[in-house]
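dumping this here before i forget
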Amino acid sequence: MPEFSFSKSFNFPINQVFDWHKSDLALERITPPWDNIKVVKREPLTTNFLKDGKIILEQNFMPLVNLKWRLSHQNYVEGKSFEDKMISGPVKSWVHNHEFIQESKNKTKIRDKINFSHWIKIKKLDDFTLNSMEKSFRYRNKIIEHDLSKQYANTNGYYVVVSGASGLVGSDLVPLLNSLGYKILILKFDENSTNLETIQVKSIKNKEIVSLNWNPYSKVIPRIPKEIAEKVKFLVNLSGENILGVWTKSKKDLIVKSRLHTTRSLLSFIKTNSIELKTSIHASATGFYGSNKDMKLDENNSPGIGFLAKTTNEWEKEQNNFLSCSKRNINLRIGTVLSSKGGLIKLIKAPFRLGLAGYVGNGNNYINWILLEDLIRIIERSFHDKAFSGPVNAVSPTPLKSKDFFRVIAEKYNSKIFISIPAFFPNLISKELVQEIILSNQKIIPKKLLRNEYKFFAHTLDKALDNIVGI
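structure:
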């Protein structure tokens, strides 16, 4: 039976390293994007999930092919070890032992051992599995090391209110916040909610993550217990209709309404519950700067022209009203977010993998991008770094012309054909969208991030793609 082994030492006490793995969403946090695994269901038997809980995973192996894994935790020894054993799944057997070894007072080694067997005994298949696990564990341990270094000794039981938690950014942000020790109150969008749902303090006493149905279009404002309201110190507003799609009048109205109205509703929620925020952070967009400026732009530049520029400018004005109840307010002007789970990469992945790649127009317009992992780290750092206030450009410091941007992606996916698509064709579908998004020409500098020495997880596009398709 093949065995995989991986060891890594961390300069942190053994109890801190072990406890990190107890976080509700630790698995979501360390799963590499390219593994395409999502948690379908958890079945805890006791309050300690690692001791005897069961979990069902779904792995997207290829288009339209999803593999189900059912695993159970066993052989738990507090502060020392636990095991994951496959009950059923795509392989014949799978047992993963996690061992924690104290090397010194402030140094801990994690030793992972996985014994597995496939239904068919083929050496190339075993080697492929071993190589895949090697890549995954290198990534996992980089995430663990980062999170351990950012954990706070005492978060005072502070809550972070998150709207848009199920979206592309929120679904990765929540596991990060959970792993760092924050409690999280998710406002879950529900257009049918009456906003009369209540939270019982006793029932959530030991919960790290609490969800409350929220209808931002209702005149009723949700109320939460005073004990929780007093602990809410941070807010992350990620709500908003996806800007992709044909820009009909109704689509554009929804884009505007979903941003302005939900932001106003969030402010009413904060004020109605007498919440005093330390920091409020709102998703904004680089569309603020307009679409036809072939020049370097930073946070000091004024808004441009066009639908997105006007919408984003109005949106930020609504966001700035949070200064009445928050010590700091941040407008996070986000560029093209790179992730295998959604956005641009998910849109182009299939044709690029099949060998057909390309770009629209002459390819000389700049694309401002950011890896999802960097984006969520920037959001969390903004909670406490007082240097971040007002507009902050959440983009990589290395924007690329679109022909270079897509060529790097094509090389990563081994695309054989690389073409230029005349702008005439997509313009027939939605000229305004094409001009403001696909052919937008901005060269945006993350001046505040660089000035305050934010260290990018992925500084270059090649590095970002390594953490999307596999290192």
